């Protein structure tokens, strides 16, 4: 099977959101690398490449943003530099798998998009309202870091006692990893990368709020999901039709419901599973317990 068919298969599956996010980032990176190589070989790099990358990066200048509004999202799928994309995608894979397992594909994508928008909002507001940041001319933002930080913070808020085995360090609870990520973001503000650090903090905040609101019964990702379904319907060419049926037959008598035949609410069982997570960590759950948590999160 060709690479093109592999990519087409990856995007045709509905339960493949994490791999799709990873793949989009890789495809954009590879595309820009090829364009840059061609322009360098043809001697047109200095003339044309800045305009190419301008179509992807988020500018701090509002007038430039008005001419390139799509960069509010494209910046979060664009990287320059191998190690930049490597670390972002490794974190997206590790923490995204955890969020996806518990919350599902749609909420993972929603969190990624909301993280990108929150990072963009913090970046734009800071560089346009804080006088001290105006010393940086022509500032722009690139990379999935805000989205990835949102996913890391969401995972830490959702399962703070979950443990990762880090190379050369050993087992570390996810809540401490999130704390280090926030600390590094603050350090970045002080050491010459204020745009990136501020965007990370915006992503972290939306990741925390996303889980807290979800636990309160409110899904902040519903607008993102609605827009995604609308765009998907347009691209597929299959408009959503509302079909009604008229039943001319006489309605059948409803069967009587006997006391005690309704399914017992699962909340008590879910509480037991959550207590187990707080005591032993998420990794201690069985596959059946994880599936019950996932089903409960869909209600």
Automatic annotation (TrEMBL):
* Coiled-coil intervals: none
InterPro entries named in the record: DUF6576, Peptidase_S54_rhomboid_dom, Rhomboid-like_sf, Rhomboid_protease_S54
Q: A Gene Ontology MF term for this entry?
A: serine-type endopeptidase activity
One cellular component term (GO) for this entry is: membrane
The main location class comes to membrane
Which keywords describe this protein according to UniProt? Hydrolase, Membrane, Protease, Transmembrane, Transmembrane helix
SUPFAM superfamilies given in the database record: Rhomboid-like (SSF144091)
The record lists the membrane-crossing segments as 21-41, 81-99, 111-133, 139-159, 166-189, 195-211
Q: Which family does it belong to?
A: Belongs to the peptidase S54 family.
Q: Where is the Peptidase S54 rhomboid domain?
A: 68-210
A Gene Ontology biological process annotation? proteolysis
Task: Provide the membrane topology annotation.
Answer: Multi-pass membrane protein
Compartments where located: Membrane
Any idea what this protein is called? Answer: Rhomboid family intramembrane serine protease
**Where in the numbering of this chain does the DUF6576 domain appear?**
266-299
Does Hydrolase appear among the keywords? yes
- Decide whether keyword Mitochondrion is in the record: no
């Amino acid at each position: 099977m060709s690479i093109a068919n592999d990519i087409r298969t990856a995007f045709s599956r509905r339960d493949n959101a994490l791999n799709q996010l990873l793949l989009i980032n890789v495809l954009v990176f590879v595309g820009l690398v090829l364009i840059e190589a061609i322009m360098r070989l043809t001697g047109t790099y200095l003339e044309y490449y800045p305009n190419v990358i301008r179509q992807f990066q988020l500018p701090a200048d509002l007038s430039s943003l008005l001419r390139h509004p799509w960069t509010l999202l494209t910046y979060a799928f664009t990287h320059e530099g191998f190690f930049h994309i490597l670390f972002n995608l490794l974190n997206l894979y590790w923490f995204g798998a955890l969020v996806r397992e518990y919350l599902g594909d749609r909420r993972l994508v929603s969190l990624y998009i909301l993280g990108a928008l929150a990072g963009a909002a913090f970046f734009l507001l800071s560089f346009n309202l804080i006088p001290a940041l105006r010393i940086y001319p022509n500032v722009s933002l690139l990379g999935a870091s805000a989205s990835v930080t949102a996913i890391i913070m969401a995972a830490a808020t959702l399962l703070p006692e979950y443990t990762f085995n880090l190379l050369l360090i050993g087992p570390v609870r996810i809540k401490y990893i999130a704390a280090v990520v926030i600390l590094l973001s603050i350090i970045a503000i002080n050491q010459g990368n204020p745009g990136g650090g501020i965007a990370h903090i915006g992503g972290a905040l939306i990741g925390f709020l996303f889980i807290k609101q979800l636990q309160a019964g409110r899904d902040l990702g519903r607008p993102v999901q609605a827009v995604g379904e609308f765009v998907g319907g347009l691209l597929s060419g299959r408009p959503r039709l509302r079909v009604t049926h008229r039943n001319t037959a006489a309605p059948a008598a409803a069967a009587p419901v006997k006391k005690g035949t309704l399914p017992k609410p699962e909340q008590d069982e879910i509480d037991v599973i959550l207590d187990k997570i707080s005591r032993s960590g998420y990794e201690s759950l069985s596959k059946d317990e994880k599936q019950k948590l996932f089903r409960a999160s869909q209600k």
